[in-house]
């Protein structure tokens, strides 16, 4: 059964960094297009980043140059390294296999000003 578990969120000051982790099971992460999304209360979930099987990455404009998606194939794990964090990055972050309907519980990122 497919499952993703996000972790690594926390409280950080503006300008700080965090590295999120998404542990996958029930599928081979490196064979899949993997995506990161985020959501704040009252707003729709927003796409943040995509990591393709070949390693290509794509980012929403607001995080370009600050966020980096990567993966560890041996650990079947996806990462999102976030730097120069801003208060507007505050959200619950989720990962998802492209085309799947499965979501994890998310991990809360809070950036204080």
Would you write up a description of this structure?
- The chain is mainly β.
- It is built from no helices and 10 strands.
- It has strands at residues 3-7, 10-13, 18-25, 34-39, 46-51, 57-59, 67-72, 77-82, 91-97, 107-112.
- The strands form 2 sheets. A 6-stranded mixed beta sheet has the order 2-10-9-4-5-6, with no helix packed on it.
- Strand 7 (67-72) and strand 8 form a beta hairpin.
- The chain is globular, with a radius of gyration of 13 Å.
- The mean pLDDT is 97.
Output the radius of gyration.
13 Å
**Rounded average pLDDT:** 97
Low-confidence stretches are none
Strand content: over 45%
Provide a count of the helices.
Answer: 0
Globally, the shape reads: globular
Q: Main sheet?
A: 6 strands, mixed
Spatial order of the strands forming the largest sheet: 2-10-9-4-5-6
Helix content: under 10%
Query: Separation of termini?
Result: 40 Å
Based on DSSP secondary structure assignment, what is the total number of beta strands? 10
Q: Structural class given helices, strands, pairing?
A: mainly beta
Order of helices and strands: EEEEEEEEEE
């Amino acid at each position: 059964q497919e499952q993703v578990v996000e972790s690594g969120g926390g409280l950080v000051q503006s300008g700080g960094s965090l590295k999120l982790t998404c542990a996958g099971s029930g599928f081979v992460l490196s064979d899949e297009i993997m995506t990161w999304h985020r959501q704040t209360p009252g707003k729709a979930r927003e796409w943040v980043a995509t990591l393709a099987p070949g390693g290509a990455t794509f980012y929403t404009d607001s995080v370009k140059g600050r966020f980096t998606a990567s993966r560890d194939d041996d650990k079947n794990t996806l990462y999102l390294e976030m730097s120069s964090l801003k208060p507007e990055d505050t959200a619950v972050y989720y990962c998802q296999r492209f085309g799947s309907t499965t979501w994890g519980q998310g991990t809360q990122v809070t950036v204080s000003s």
